[in-house]
Please model this.
Amino acid sequence: MAIESLKSSKMRSGLTALGIIIGIAAVIATFTLGSSFANYFTEEFDTTGSNYVMIAAAKDNIFYDQQLTIVNNTPGVTGVSGELYQTGVINYAGESKNKSVLGWDESVQEILSIPVYEGNFISDNDLYSAVVGKTIAQEDFRNEMGLRSTIEVTLYNSQTKEYVTETFKVKGILGSEETNLLTQNQENEFVVIPIETMKRMTGESDYQTIYAMTDSREDLNETDDEITLRLARNLGVSDRDIYENNTDKIPFLTTNQAEILDEVSTLTNTLQLFLLGIGGISLIVGAVGIMNIMLVTVTERTKEIGTLKALGYSSRDVLMMFVVESIIISAIGGLIGTIFGLIVAYIGVSYLDLTMAVPYSSVLFGVGLSIIIGVLAGAQPSYKAARMNPVDALRSD
Model:
């Protein structure tokens, strides 16, 4: 009887379900996109050096080989590498470009999981070999660079106050074909030369950044704290300033991938809550719409209710009939909304080139929530119908 009643007013039933459809679609799409993003970031951290700590100097002349040794001797650290950075001039085939030049040793490739597109990474035995980013090699110069191409690198020497130029052979091309939302393939945009050669060219021996690889991601934060404690003490920072995390007194900043992942998760969760709020408003609107239509339906079918009661239908039978109508509207709206939400999520992850992760629990939650809304929204009108006196109902106009 509930189904026949809904079929007799298809347009009204469809419009009534529209609010539920929009709300459930928003909820499902939000959960699915959020899960897809979370899985993507976790996978990226797993494959791009997820267990390292980056220690950046806040000013010059902080990190030297002594500090590198301290970090390397910290429990939980399995590898360490220093970094020098300067903007230099790259000359190739008669063209000159200003590019970021990094001084690294061979261990940094493993620590940071630097991808090599072609050729090999520099080794500690190299003096005048270089690896260049794929964008620089293939796009920035009229003539494309290849392995064994000769380039000139010009850097500023802070000791002699002069520019120093050295010639390097291209040993490898950095980068990959895959798009990375985390790093935007930054390795495509710089030139790497051996760190000892860069020290001689720049006259500098202090590292701007130290990278420390740890045993596992689970111990990352503990190792980070221990590195901070040991380095700060070595640099003359008091224990009080260390434990109070007084950033004005600690002349460096540490960060690790676990912290970044936590920040990304917080951002994703906040965005999900915002979108869920919008979906929740739609669900409230949908519930109000169902209640309103059911109240109108009860008023329109007053004589029918009186007839049913006169024929022996109990108040419970009448109550259930109208509750079932609201449940059917909500359930159909929830099912359609779920399908529509999954379609929207699929389009979104396809556009962003992500792997779609469907949280099946949220699908069940969405459909279940729509049914609960149907019960709650239809309860009051159904109760009103069930309480009608059959004589009064039959005599109404």
Remarks:
- The chain has 13 helices and ten strands.
- The first helix runs from residue 2 to 7.
- The two ends are 22 Å apart (CA to CA).
- The first strand starts at residue 52 and ends at 57.
